[in-house]
Specification:
Blueprint lengths: L13 E5 L5 H10 L3 E6 L22 E4 L4 H12 L4 E6 L5 H10 L15 H10 L7 E4 L6 H6 L4 E5 L9 E3 L2 H12 L12 E5 L6 E8 L2 E15 L2 E10 L5 H6 L2
Parallel strand pairs: 1-2, 1-4, 2-3
Antiparallel strand pairs: 5-8, 6-7, 6-8, 9-10, 10-11
């Protein structure tokens, strides 16, 4: 798996990846190719079935060790150190959406490069919108919470259709376009009694205005205050199999167009 001309071969340092699945496996393997050993940490409640979601291009994942997250950071660190067998821990990163919170907390606790835990619940889509609103950017109208009374006023005043989704999930899991108050209430209750695709119970539900038009995703990386846009895509989502936002694909946006220049700023 390692690159024969890698300058890191022989160092045998450990890269800790939290919940590696889907395209996160590709990132993990790129690190592995550079001479690092992988320890996979599976978070509490992560669905067993999701562990098998490995892209065909990756083949079989080859971990130096696999461990389960413990109840505390101290205990999890002890498990990692035992699995590392005296080797240096080089980095700790999320291998998928489900592992973001744990990777942030664990990397911070281990004293590694980290996003940290300064922003509580930063995977919460409600929190994300309020953060960008706070700094003067346009944000979607919304309401959210774990009980229906938290969103009732919004659902009685907002124009329909509206979008309902779990506050913490990925891949359009549980996202539904509701056309009436009754439909929205029914879906709210369904989400609050369902398990998310990555595992775990739905903590709360987000209700948002429906934004019509194309949906874009911007792949962006930041390090020490330097920010770079590396790719921009436009989603191809359609109604299918009873879902409102089913992924049919993603198309790259031409980097020479005005649209790309606006989105990459």
């Amino acid at each position: 798996m390692t690159l024969q001309n890698s300058p890191y071969i022989g160092q045998q340092k450990i890269a800790v990846v939290v919940d590696p699945y889907s395209t996160g496996c590709c990132v993990a393997q790129e690190i592995q190719k550079r001479g690092y050993l992988l320890i996979a940490v599976w978070t509490i409640g992560f669905a067993e079935e999701m562990k098998t979601h490995v892209p065909k291009s990756c083949g079989r994942m080859d971990y130096f060790a696999e461990i389960d997250e413990a109840q505390t950071l101290k205990q999890t660190k002890a498990r990692i150190n035992e699995a590392a067998q005296g080797r240096e821990i080089f980095c700790c990163f999320a291998g998928g959406e489900a592992g973001v919170d744990a990777a942030d907390a664990l990397s911070e606790y281990l004293g590694l490069r980290t996003n940290g835990t300064g922003i509580a619940n930063r995977r919460d889509k409600y929190v994300q919108q309020e953060l960008i609103r706070k700094v003067g950017l346009r944000a979607v109208r919304q309401a959210g919470g774990p009980i229906f009374s938290d969103v009732e006023a919004f659902l009685t005043t907002e124009a329909y259709p509206v979008v309902l989704k779990p506050t913490e999930s990925a891949g359009s899991d549980g996202v539904k376009l509701c056309y009436t108050y009754e439909e929205a209430k029914q879906h709210f209750e369904k989400l609050m009694s369902s398990q998310m695709v990555n595992g775990g119970e739905c903590p709360s539900v987000l209700c948002q205005e429906f934004l019509q038009g194309d949906e874009y995703v911007v792949d962006h990386v930041s390090r020490d205050g330097v920010h770079k846009t590396v790719m921009i895509w436009v989603y191809d989502k359609r109604k299918a199999n009873g879902g409102d936002f089913v992924y049919f694909g993603m198309k790259p946006v031409d980097p020479t167009t005005d649209k790309d220049h606006v989105l990459s700023k």
